[in-house]
Design a protein that fits this description.
Strand order of the largest sheet: 2-1-3
Shape: globular
Strand content: 15-25%
Helix content: 25-40%
Order of helices and strands: HHEEHEH
Distance between the termini: 9 Å
Number of helices: 4
Largest sheet: 3 strands, antiparallel
């Protein structure tokens, strides 16, 4: 998925959102908010988890924690099966380094 695909999804679903390109590496939500000149709660984060050796992308408000129990329940696995992907695996799966991964 690229930014054009994401924009099409936003438009198709009448989501009130603006894609802002990032020129800097922003490993934290706070860094991203500062770079964009917005509040941290306006930043969306993308997190890659591994479940049964398969990647799962969770997109969440930058200030909120992802509840692995909910992911596990949705996928019908135990919470312990939902683990963060390593930095290398996340980059391999998405093509983006952690801290610059678009939704």
């Amino acid at each position: 998925m690229n930014s054009a695909d994401l924009q099409k999804f936003i438009d198709t679903h009448s989501i009130e959102a603006v894609i802002l390109p990032m020129d800097a590496h922003t490993p934290t939500v706070t860094d991203a908010a500062r770079a964009l000149g917005v509040r941290a709660e306006q930043v969306i984060k993308s997190l890659v988890f591994m479940v049964k050796n398969e990647p799962v992308l969770a997109i969440n408000n930058g200030q909120a924690r992802v509840d692995r129990r909910k992911i596990a329940a949705h996928l019908g696995v135990g919470r312990g099966r939902v683990k963060f992907a390593s930095v290398d695996r996340a980059a391999e799966v998405t093509g983006f380094i952690v801290g610059s991964m678009p939704p």
